[in-house]
Design goal:
83% helix; Utrophin; mainly alpha; rod-shaped
Length: 163
Amino acid sequence: MEEVEKKRDAMNGITKIVFVMADEDSSQIAYASLKKQFAQIQQQWANVCQVVSERSTLLQALVPQWQQLEDEELCFSQWLQRKEQQLSSINLKPGSDSRVLLEQVKLLQSVEQDLDIHHRLFNQLTERAQKIKEQLEVGSIGVIEITEKKLKTHSKRWDALVL
């Protein structure tokens, strides 16, 4: 943003340039042509500044939302990892001790309760990611990161855990 402001200041400085034309006959035509070209350049630069300003405002508004998404995604990912580890520790050998089986059933019930709670959190996480994604341009790195790295990965892990 600082670089854009420096360039804008340089553009504003150009408005103070004085052109001296030696040819008296064509000086009015040349002056009018230069003035028109300069006005076009000035308009294009104003458009660039406007786009950069709007983009900057959007990105500044998205930073806290993105950070919250990152934090929630990290917590959800850690929770998924713990549940995956718990479920992988269950021993499905026939003829196991009834005490071991009872512990495993209790673990499964606990995981099931957690799944109910975290299903809502997973949906909220997905909705938050979608809202951020909608504010970004299609094909931007942020959209790709949200879509491919976060949502798809968590959806696959969630499905593997639930199914």
